[in-house]
Amino acid sequence: MEKVTLNVTGMTCGHCEKAVKNALNTINGVQNVTVYLESGKVEVQYDSQEASVKELKDAIENQGYDVA
Question: Which CATH topology does 2-67 take?
């Protein structure tokens, strides 16, 4: 298992948190997602054999948020 912390801008509320979590949880290999609204950080635990950081970033960006 790998763990990555992504810096996401544009998240301001519980709906944002849910949108990001739902998008990431649809990716095969994602095991756990923790969103920290105050800091704009998203921790993702995933299987690097099934998912890539690019896929994770793309899923978040497709929800309308920016990943630094």
Answer: Alpha-Beta Plaits (3.30.70)
